[in-house]
Amino acid sequence: MPTTLTAFADVTTSDSALRRFLHGLPGVDAVGLEARAAALGTRSIKTTAKAYAIDLAISMIDLTTLEGADTPGKVRALAAKAVHPDPTDRTTPMTAAVCVYPDMVATAKAALGGADVKVASVATAFPAGRAALPVKLADTRDAVAAGADEIDMVIDRGAFLAGRYLETYELIKAVKEACVRPDGTSARLKVIFETGELSTYDNIRRASWIGMLAGADFIKTSTGKVGVNATPANTLLMLEAVRDFKAQTGIQVGVKPAGGIRTTKDAIKFLVLVNETVGEDWLTNEWFRFGASSLLNDLLMQRQKLSTGRYSGPDYVTVD
Amino acid sequence: MSESSTRLNVFKTYKLYVGGKFPRSESGRVYEVTDPKGKWLANAPLSSRKDARDAVVAARKAFGGWSGATAYNRGQVLYRVAEMLEGRREQFVREVAEAEGLSKSKAGAVVDAAIDRWVWYAGWTDKIGQVVGGANPVAGPFFNLSTPEPTGVVAVVAPQESSFLGLVSVIAPVIATGNTAVVIASEKAPLPALSLGEVLATSDLPGGVVNILSGKASEMGPHLAAHMDVNAIDLAGADAALAQELEIAAADNLKRVLRPQPVDDWAADPGTRRMTAFLETKTVWHPTGSLGASGSSY
Amino acid sequence: MASLFEYAPAPESRSVVDIAPSYGLFIDGEFTDAADGKVFKTVSPSSEEVLAEVAQAGAADVDRAVKAARKAFEKWSALPGSERAKYLFRIARIIQERSRELAVLETLDNGKPIKETRDADLPLVAAHFFYYAGWADKLDHAGYGANPRPLGVAGQVIPWNFPLLMLAWKIAPALATGNTVVLKPAETTPLSALFFADICRQAGLPKGVVNIVPGYGDAGAELVAHPDVNKVAFTGSTAVGKAIARQVAGSGKKVTLELGGKGANIVFDDAPIDQAVEGIVGGIFFNQGQVCCAGSRLLVQESIHDELLDSLKRRLSTLRLGDPLDKNTDIGAINSAEQLARITALAETGEAEGAERWSPACELPSAGYWFAPTLFTNVTQAHTVARDEIFGPVLSVLTFRTPDEAVAKANNSQYGLSAGIWTEKGSRILAVANKLRAGVVWANTFNKFDPTSPFGGYKESGFGREGGRHGLEAYLDV
Fold first, then answer.
1. B143 touches chain A (CB under 8 A)
2. Is C116 contained in some domain?
3. Residue A18's domain is classified under what CATH number?
4. Does the residue C130 lie in any domain?
5. What angle do CA A16, A19, A25 make, to 5 degrees?
6. Could you tell me the residue range of the domain that residue C141 belongs to?
7. B interface with C, Cβ–Cβ below 8 Å
């Protein structure tokens, strides 16, 4: 299998070439896509599979706080929760990462100590992405310099919707370059499309391809800051995109639904989507993440239920 | 005109109407047609099963174009038939009077009704689709539309008694909706039917849309009823025994069968039944999605 | 390869349904033995377990049922439509209340996955009764003239692929229009019809309005031939449909037939490919392909053949075949040993004629009747598997180059029930849909059903329509 983008080199040479390529991708029928996502949502996950799924989901969480009111104290609490999600049960896996604003990266890094929990930082004038390119790049470099392991950037939805696909592509490429550390290693780049603003499934498929061609390590649905965030359908569509991209280039790209996933039932539905669309290559936190905060406590309560046989309650998980 | 007139009438050789042409029977056979009192009127072709077979080929060939024509166009053509008939009214009054033993005035009323029947069906071509088709409010994100479509090639056993109004009343509804027809005319009174072929040929009706055969329904009927490229059969002019025989044969390819029904008065409002009997309902589904309800929706 | 995320078994509980060891015929409001005392066994196709013993109707029983229906007709047809409507609404509601029980029962008796009986069959059954309930007092406005009259006693013979749904398609419009009914369910799936008899009792339906006579083909033939039956409705094979058409000739009985099909699912190179793959899979593997309108012929544009086949094979590899009661099962059991033998024989013919056979790796249970999802590629119009209805999970893949060729191949069949079109180009959908000689055309979707949407075929797929306003005509003297 090839692991190269050379086959697509011509695609990104001009705006018109990129447009022709993106508009030549297969269309998406909304009703069919949503029906498929809903059908997979009826999978019934029981017993051992459920226990496995809950632990897997916990390990895939980018535990997130992205508030104007964030303080070092709040970030430290979040970091503690990421390392020990359930203080009463040390077998509980750690989350994949904590996700914070760039100015909180150092705090988060310090709070996590040596724990194997990544620090992800939003960047590029998150969430609106309305800033000049140098500002976005500086934002990214700051976060990387502060120790961010991962960068969650936003695309310029305005440029995309105005049809300036090449500009969108070049922004991602530039940010990807800004992720490189002095030692030559690189923060992993997640590209947020804000699918709720792209509005159509065809746009989501096109944005996914722009992101993947530009070198995204992950493609991510949403900022969590608009009305419609991750849905089973838009996540299924992005999974199909990474599946097709790997088939054609050999390059694996991760997927991160973010925003609106609050319950264990929801999370398991997403894992079923992953399992049935791209398979177990993606069933690891290296390639699939949940951008979420309240989801974790629901997973923990379900986990307690499975181990004790009793239903748990909110007083038996930590409030952060 | 007095018997002593010195000029001898020119007789017409009555011929079949198949594929827009006027052939004799391939069999070379004819039979004597008389008026109800037994007076010789003409020799009509005694069509064979091969004539019927040729007519089916012609009707099938014409089906694509005729069913694909716009309903407006079909209406124009049917109206043109009425116009042409009006111009030859006197001829048909005479032929109907002779064929059915009617007075001139009664025959005139029959011909008038037949002309009006063409006008009636001319108006139906672009309305039947709205009356029997339409959107179906399915419980899901789908646009769903049912439309009537012509069944295909329809074999018609024309009424035996009402040789002209009855004939028109069974042909017009079949072709109004886009079917093509192979018609077996009234066995004992085929002449108005054969003359109708001449009218149809000059009415912008594409050749093969209507094919008219004279002869015995009992001879041709079984072959048409069993023919695998005929889609439907109208048994209007078949007696009970023949109707049953033909309906059994029609099952070979599951033809749509319109059984003979008693008709007291061919001039009465015919309703839509004769049209719907030779219509298929096609239902097409397509997803609709919604605009913006779920953020990413189409 | 065992997946990291192997779903544990998730069986639906059998305890919601209580199957008695034996069942009688349902005639004139009572369960009764067959006159000659004959019984037959109905088995679960997924395990070959005997579910119950059922009285087997013979000529005398059919006659008794028709007499009961005739007796009930006078009062039933004279009831105000609004009253008939309320009985049907009651039935619809009771079906909703008992839908889980009926779904489990249907899955046990038929072998289809619980996912389908729960999410497709039962909701559609209830919806069908609701829909026709509403027509009962509005027949004057249905477009068939003022005060259209019922025909009398309807003799109805239904197949085993959607036992309860086909019952609903037959009984709901018949009762709404004021007819009474004698219905013969298929011999391999009699149970849901007998449970429906119980629902009629719960609803207080007058005796004799619905009669259920389980039995074999001979009982169906007796019913069709009975001189006091006014209307024959049959869903099943084209061969039997033709026999019925011959049998009723000259009798004056009104007939509607829903018969076989060989649906073409046409995929153009600009199709929404992921949804097309789902539509192809649903089109042929829904209910193990035992669906008259199945998309059993895939017509794929040559330019995307390889790409589509790769996607299709990858997708088929994720299908889960097994215990029909497991909520995660996609492919259940074939309904009977006889049907399995037929599918097996036709698939062997496909191979013998040179078509290339492929199935995903798939372990078949040792007991019961099973057939792995199967693709045939390199199929041409001349292959048996491209012409004969297989009525099983077997898809024949053919190619085309132009829309004209696609239409010509799609229509090149004795059947004309269903077809599918996949393309993003609206005008092409309309042009192709217009040319297809099929009663139901699904564009960018497949296998969708709704009580408001008329269903039925062209050509040898039968005549008459079920569903919608159109479906009333079959039961009215118009």
1. no
2. yes
3. 3.20.20.70
4. yes
5. 145
6. 14-259+461-475
7. 131-132, 136-140, 142, 144, 146, 151, 231, 240, 243-244, 247-248, 250-254, 256-257, 259, 271, 273, 280-287
Contact C108, C19 (CB under 8 A): yes
CATH code (residue C422)? 3.40.309.10
The pLDDT tens digits of the residues spanning C227-273 come to 999 999 999 999 999 999 999 999 999 999 999 999 999 999 999 99
Per-residue pLDDT at B292 exceeds 50: no
Q: Is the pLDDT of residue B296 over 60?
A: no
Q: Is C302 a catalytic residue?
A: no
Q: Can you give the length of chain A in residues?
A: 320
Query: In chain B, how many domains are there?
Result: 1
Task: Note whether residue A226 is domain-resident.
Answer: yes
Q: Kindly report, residue by residue over A178-192, the tens digit of the pLDDT.
A: 999 999 999 999 999
> Which of A29, A32, A195 lies closest to B295 in CB terms?
A195
Question: Residue B249: which domain range?
Answer: 30-287
Question: In Å, how far are A302, B17, B274, C81, C470 from C139, measured between CA atoms?
Answer: 55, 43, 21, 8, 12
Q: Does A289 fall in a domain?
A: yes
Question: Do B287 and A231 lie within an 8 Å CB cutoff?
Answer: no
Task: Give residue B3's pLDDT.
Answer: 55
The residues, ordered by sequence, that sit 6+ positions from C277 with a Cβ below 8 Å of its Cβ are C308, C311, C312, C315
Q: What is the pLDDT of residues B143-165, one digit of tens each?
A: 999 999 999 999 999 999 999 99
Q: Is residue B23 part of a domain?
A: no
Q: Are B258 and B233 in contact (CB under 8 A)?
A: yes
| B298 in any annotated domain | no
- How much is the average pLDDT of A194-220? 96
Comparing C-alpha atoms, which of C103, C105, C131 is closest to residue C119? C103
Do residue A49 and residue C119 have CB atoms under 8 angstroms apart? no
Under the banding of pLDDT at 50, 70 and 90, the label for residue C1 is very low
Q: Are residues C301 and C209 in the same domain?
A: no
pLDDT at C6: 86
Best residue in B284, B288, B298 to probe C by mutation, most C CBs within 10 Å? B284
Q: B182 exposed, middle or buried (CB, 10 Å; 0-12, 13-18, 19+)? A: buried
Considering only CB atoms, which chain B residues are within 8 Å of A226? 295
Structurally, how many domains does chain A consist of? 1
Across the interface, whether the CB atoms of B142 and A195 are under 8 A apart is answered: no
Mind listing the pLDDT tens digit for each residue in B41-94?
Answer: 999 999 999 999 999 999 999 999 999 999 999 999 999 999 999 999 999 999
A109 is a catalytic site residue: no
Q: How many CB pairs under 8 A join B and C?
A: 106
d(CA B108, CA C146): 33
Q: Is residue B8 in a domain?
A: no
Answer whether C10 sits within 8 Å of A45, measured CB to CB: yes
In this structure, the answer to whether residues C321 and C348 fall within a common structural domain is: yes
Query: Can you tell me whether residue C226 is helix, strand or coil?
Result: coil
Contact B296 A227 (CB under 8 A): no
What was the pLDDT predicted at C267? 98
CA distance A98 to A76: 10
Q: Which of C12, C200, C292, C293 is catalytic?
A: C292
- Minimum distance, in Å, between the CA of residue C357 and any CA atom of chain B: 32
Would you say residue C1 lies in a domain? no
User: Tell me, what amino acid is at B253?
Assistant: N
Residue B295 falls inside a structural domain: no
- Express the helix, strand and coil content of chain C in percent, nearest 5 each: 40, 20, 40
For residues C305 and C282, membership in a common domain is answered with yes
CATH number (domain holding residue B157): 3.40.605.10
Task: Note the pLDDT of residue C331.
Answer: 98
Structure tokens at A91: 């077998």
**Token couple for C383:** 């292959």
Please check whether residue A195 is in contact with residue A181, taking contact to mean a CB–CB distance below 8 angstroms: no
Containing domain of residue A89, as a range?
Answer: 6-309
